[in-house]
Amino acid sequence: MANCAQNAKEFIKQAFGPRIAIIASPDAEKACQKNNLSFVELLKPFCRPSTEGQIRDLQHQLYVVQNLLLHMSEPQPNPPPAVATKKLLDDVVARCHSPVELGPSIQVGDMRFNASTPWFEVYRKAFCENMRVSDHEFIRHYVACIFVVSTNHSNPIDEFTRMLQKQMTKMKEEKYPKYIPPNHVFFYRLLLHDVLDGNETRVQTLQNDLLTKYGPGHSHTLKINSRSAIDEYPAHVDPWSQYMIADHENDLMMESIDEGNEDDIGDLPGEPNGPPDLIKSITPVPSEAQLDKLIEKKDPLESESIKDPLTGDPLTEASDPLTKALRESSLTTTTNAGGAGVGETTMAGSRVERALKGERTSLRQSRSGAPSSALVYGQCLTLADHDRIRAFVNEFANRGWLPFVEKSIRTLSEQVNTRKGFQRTLFSVGKKWFGGGAKPSNQAGVSHYLPDSSEMQMRLLGDLAFLAQNYDVAYSSYHTCKRDFQTDHAWSYYAGALELAATALFMQTTPKRDPLNYFEESITVYLSPLKMHPFATRATLLATEYMKSKALYRDAAAAFIKLTGEDSDLKGGLLLEQAAHCFLRMSPSLVRKYAFHLILSGHRFSKAYQRRHALRMYGQALEVYQDKSWSLAEDHINLCLGHQSYTLKQLDDAEMAFRQLLSHKNSLQPTDIQKTLIKEFLFVFKQHLMSFDDDGDDDDLNAGSSSSVAATKKLPFLPLPRIMSQRTRVLLCGVDGEKKQLGFRLGDEPTDTLLSIGSGDGDESALADVRNVKAGMDAFDSIDSGCDMSLDDWKRLEEKAVRGKSGGLTRYAVQTCFDDATDNSGFPICVEGEKVLVELLLENSLQIRLFLGNVSLLWECKEAKQENEAESDESDNKISLQESCVVSEVLEEFVLPPSATKPLRLSLTPLRTGTVNVIGIVYNLKARGNDADDEDELERKSVLQKRHRSKSNVDRMLSIGVRGKQIVYCKGPRLNRDKKERSMMAYGPDYRLSLNVVSSTAQLRVTFSEFPDVLLCGEVKLVQLELSNCGSSTLENVRVASSCPKFFSFGSTFPLETDGYPWPLEKSSGKSKEDIGLSFRRQPIAPSNVWPCKLTLPDGKLIPGGSATLPMWIYGGDETGVHQLDLLFVYDVHRQENTPIKYRVLKHFSRLSVLSSLKVGVKMNRTLPERTTCGVDSLEEKLAFLSVENVYQSTKERSVFFQLLQLSALSRHQLCLGGVSGKIEDESVRVQPKETFLLGFRTSKRRQIDGEDERNGIVSNILFENHEIVASLSPCIDLFIHSPAGETFQDSSIDAVDGNTNSVSRLAPIELAPSQLGEMKASKKKEELDAGFIVLWRAVVCAADGTRQLFGQSSVLPSEVMEVNSAVIHVSLSHRHSIQHDFNRSRICFLPLTVHLQNTSNLNVNTILKLLPPADTRHKKSKADSSPDNLPNDCLTGNYTWVGSSVCHSVLIGQEETTVQTSACFTRPGVYDLSRMKVDVVTDGGDIVQFNVEKSYVTVENLVSH
User: For residues 1349 and 1338, what is the distance between their CA atoms, to the nearest angstrom?
Assistant: First the structure.
């Protein structure tokens, strides 16, 4: 338990001091009234004798009586009502609420706790003094009576006699007040003399008569009022004020009780209606004035109903537990009637007698009705009068009462010993044997003893000895009588004897035994059968003092907790606090138990209306639980702190408690509780703001335009939501106030989608145009869309575009986004009039939605011309100047989901040069959104609309909120350069929120007329590229850089003739059905765009407000999948004064999804010289085969077929197209889904013509329609050169131009020596051809909702060329490629074929043709068979055989050709590979060189007969 100012023995002497009755005549009281005091009040400061007294014990041993305290009071005819005693205890505790800051403390670890509780000391003092007197003990009965008569009385001696007789009559007839037996009551006479009004001669005479009649030990003469009240007396001493405050308040309380009726006893002054246990408020109830500010118009019919203070919704018992408490608290309350004690109220005996009321009323009226704080006490008393009063008290105690008590003790001892005769002894023994030794039962035994019985005389002997501090005699008496009380089942007498016996043992110098067992048994008896809680409380207070002296803190805590029942909340709170201090003083200290019991104590204090003590309890408990991961306990404490602080009008503390309650990162409170907490916080917060501004209203909730520091200086800081400052991002978007859509996202204009095309796995993508897309990464969406381009990649592009090489730049303009991963040591440079986006990551740790309204950035602006000027005082002009510097975006509402993080993106536009610092955000934190969609909010809103009939009032009630701000703190990377920085938490600068605003300059805006997000593989899309200058100066020298140039091509002007094609056209002669149109020309083969690509502008520049439109082609690429496209536009600006910007950049990023379309391949073989093509002799001819396969996976809903427009060949070595094998029967070549188109044509080398530049190439075309597309211009040549095929073509062409002619084989007869034939074994080298092919096509998409035409080009290089060293023997097959046979009629199908063998050398060779047995290839897959030019093995069918000889020998001379006839036999339909044969050439040395046969397939179909 806590430290006390008194030690245990001093407390016991004070609690059990002798009670003296003061009976004063009216004339004596009148003399005292000159000092604004009654006679009892006059003696209060002097009730402790200043000298020690001496008496003898039963053995005639002299001992000293020390620290004797006389309890002098005016006897009352009736006991005070329990409610008055309760009010008195509440008041004495409430007045002593401030902790002793400089008192003793306890250090536990790193925490220090206050160890003093003065409120508990004043409580136990008042408790012991005001306990109701009981018949089972004499310790609190009056033991003496002082009669006071003034010398101004006509006959004082007769008055003393009359007063004595009257008192003796009352003591015999009346039960209250209670005295000890009259023969042991000490009667004392005091003659009071008023010096100002009395006669000194008469006083002396009366004094002599009084001494003669009563003796010196029974009478005394006291002189007072030695001076007049109007005399100046600077040395006036007032020792009465400290006693008079409590007495005067008690009188006022008694008056209010007396004047009221029995039904109003529960309505105590200063307390809410109802008992403490009914007020369990979770939400603080606002006053009527506060509700009027929330609800402008109130329905008079609903004025008497209890409403939710936040929403105005009437509360029900089902919705809120507060409703029941408030409803019950408005009713008349009663308390349990029962046994006497503190806190027990009986309505029938609640009034004070009218006589007592009249006396108190007259006494107050005599004091002129002035309050106690304004009265001056003892103004007629001098210091000599004080000394005379002390002398009277000393004489009464030492020469009067103590000698009388000594005689009474001796007399009682003799009487008790005399009456202990033989018969009494036998009778007592019989009771012990047959009826004694019983233990207390559940029912209280009732026994009444006569005052002259031996048991009561023994008890009286013990009480008088205890009051006289003779503790040995007292213990002996209590110990003797307790056995008789136990035998008689008089449990109240038994418990009282045990209590005082234990106390007497404790007060002894050398106790004979441990009194703890007596204390425990006494408390048990008081509680269990008797239900006498006040006496159990007194016994507990005495027992715990003993336990404290013996350091038995665990037992003391258990004793305190045992008495914390529901009989008195005030007592429960005080005892729980003492139990908490016991846990703190244990070894080791139980700190958490200490804090837990403080919380319980605070709860009981709150129920007892001791708000300040409850607030103190919760505050001390919070010191233990705070930041210890006890989140629920901490939440409960903060909630109670908020409620108690609000009740006490300490709005600062209430706001701080709710702020801490809502600031937990991971709150474990349920959703409903969190909703209540946020509403309570907003309500308290609003009340706090209104306390500073008497005219405060809700207008500030809609003020969103003022977001500068100067305008929002008075705004408070809000705890919700939490801003993750380090993850703040700043984007210099460089756009104006319009809202842009970036990348592949849709623009402002609607798009009509004609067709949706799905991929093979079921995913669908739209082949649709996306219109009016503006280039740039001016939003966080484009940055967060998964761009693989890092800042370093952008920097490399910038370096190439600016300097043409990497490195050399000190500042990069591409760094437009600043976050925690970038270098923020420099100030971001933004341009005047251009928007800046700021993204703040907000975290909502609650499980409910948070509604933020009118959100805007909090900023501070300093103009360039004012940066060096001293700061002036704030004024309206300064605020308006600040507001004109920046235009800040205001977000009307922002909803933060439960337990989530969500980015908040706001923008600001600086309007003047200088510095703009983003400080934080300002917003309205609301309890609900503007458009509530949950059922509870809608239902509540509908009910309120019916009652109030005003939508504005309803919205006003439901949208309770406050406007505040939060600050953003960004710190740079932690410094770790030296030992000093590593040993401390030092961080570098971070200037991402400090914007350096420069004067306006040129600003490029790039707009794409159509920017697709889905293309077919090889599709070409013509887009209009609009360049406009939105700045204030001229821009020029626009360059474009990209990490993927193969997807783009830029032109200077739009082609004149396109006829719907994305390429430029030239009119060509139409083709007939008999032949296919051919064309060729010699011209330079080089791309128009050299990356970085410089765009052509009119006049080479763009003036402010000017614009230019250029063609741009977007290419689908050669590979399917999702591709990331990036473009970096770099342009120079005309520098202005104080502008560090030389050039600016514009970044653009998007994604392109590419779907499969055509699979194109070209395979070339060597042929023999036959004819001349296009008037040129064919020196070397090759046979080329073009295969075009439709690999797009069509569905029933949609299909895509392709039309071939043109085949173009590009070569630097005069490679042109020759005659075509085959005819085209239709006007156009169509490739339907899953079809493959094969086209054979010849190529030959054209002679060099004199005067032609050999660096120029030949572009030759095969036209499938009557339009010739110029393949040597943009975009055709650009897309080809930057494709993978074009890059390989360029590399081989450069080698050929440089003189590396060995890579081109001349198709002439091979001259070999006989010895060189054996070297052909394993010598395989493909001939590299400097040629590239472009297939131009049109795709027609057919669906139920319409058709759509798409255009594209596919680039390819020859995938296979005849091997040079294997041209000695040429093997070819001749057979039908498709046959039909009815296998139901005939199980065998024969196919005749011819094998052609040709010796292309000048030597004679021996050849062996071997027909190999075919193998089943359905489950075998070789590396060679997996090439794109071969059919998959899963499509082939095995199990066919050769018919005839399988080996054929022949000798071929130079240039000789022979044929071999054979047949193949099939047993089932399928596709068969007939190239399962090989040719062996036997050299003169016997070596064998093998030659394979080209692939050849046959399709066998089953003919179904009808």
Answer: 7
Q: Are 1206 and 1261 in contact (CB under 8 A)?
A: yes
CA distances from 581 to 3, 113, 275, 575, 588 (A): 9, 9, 28, 10, 13
1345 three-class SS:
coil
Tell me what pLDDT residue 953 has: 47
Residue written as tokens 């188109």? 1237
Residues 812/818, Cβ–Cβ less than 8 Å: no
Interatomic CA distance for residues 871 and 1247, integer angstroms: 87
Give CA–CA dist 1029/955, Å, rounded. 47
Cis geometry, peptide bond prior to residue 1275 (ω within 30 degrees of 0): yes
Distance CA 1016, CA 767 (A): 8
Q: Per residue in 966-1010, pLDDT tens?
A: 999 898 888 888 888 888 888 889 999 999 888 888 888 888 888
At 1490, is the secondary structure helix, strand, or coil?
Answer: strand
- The type of residue at 475 is Y
Contacts of the segment 548-557: beta carbons below 8 A, 24+ positions apart: 548/1, 548/8, 549/8, 549/506, 551/585, 552/516, 553/1, 553/582, 553/583, 553/585, 553/586, 554/582, 554/586, 555/516, 556/1, 556/582, 557/582, 557/583
Of the candidates 1103, 1112, 1141, the one whose C-alpha atom is nearest the C-alpha of residue 1004 is: 1103
Backbone torsions φ then ψ of 5, nearest 5 degrees? -70, -30
Q: How does pLDDT run across 171-203, given as a tens digit for each residue?
A: 888 888 899 999 999 999 999 998 888 778 888
Q: How far apart are CA 62 and CA 51, in angstroms?
A: 16
Burial of 90 (0-12, 13-18, 19+ CB in 10 A): buried
Residues 6+ apart with CB under 8 A from 1497: 1377, 1431, 1471, 1472, 1473, 1474
CA 1293, 1298, 1302 angle in degrees (round to 5)?
Answer: 75
Distance, in Å, from the CA atom of 1085 to the CA atom of 1258, rounded to the nearest integer, reads 8
C-alpha separations of 397 from 19, 75, 150, 247, 400 in Å? 12, 19, 21, 25, 6
Non-local CB neighbours of 602 within 8 Å, separated by 6+ positions: 573, 613, 614, 615, 616, 617, 618, 621, 640, 644
Asked if 1295 and 1466 count as a contact pair (C-beta separation under 8 A), the reply is no
Q: What is the C-alpha separation between 888 and 908, in angstroms, rounded?
A: 4
When computed from its CA atoms, the radius of gyration of the chain, rounded to whole angstroms, is: 56
Strand segments (E) across 1344-1376: 1346-1356, 1358-1360, 1369-1374
CB 1129 within 8 A of CB 1145: yes
Distances (CA, A) of 1415 to 501, 1281, 1471: 118, 44, 14
Q: From CA 586, how far away is CA 181, in angstroms rounded?
A: 47
Written as one string, the DSSP assignment of 265-300 is TT--TTS-SS-GGG---SSPPPPHHHHHHH-SS--G
Quick one: which H or E segment has residue 1424? Answer: none
User: Rounded to an integer, what distance in angstroms lies between the CA atom of residue 1037 and that of residue 254?
Assistant: 98
φ, ψ of residue 784 in degrees (nearest 5): -85, 0
Residues 817, 840 contacting (CB under 8 angstroms): no
HSE, CB side, 13 Å, CA atoms: give it for residue 157: 12
Q: What distance in Å separates the CA atoms of residue 1339 and residue 1398, rounded to the nearest whole number? A: 43
pLDDT in tens, 1349-1390: 999 999 888 765 444 344 577 788 888 878 888 888 888 998
**DSSP-assigned letters across all residues of 125-165:** HHHHHSPPP-TT-STTSEEEEEEEEETTSS-HHHHHHHHHH
**How long, in residues, is the chain?**
1506
Look at residues 289, 285, 271, 293 and name the one whose alpha carbon lies nearest to residue 315. Answer: 285
Backbone phi, psi, residue 744, to 5°: -95, 10
In terms of pLDDT, which residue wins out, 587 or 1185?
Answer: 587
Please tell me the least confidently modeled range out of 685-694, 1223-1232, 1475-1484: 1223-1232
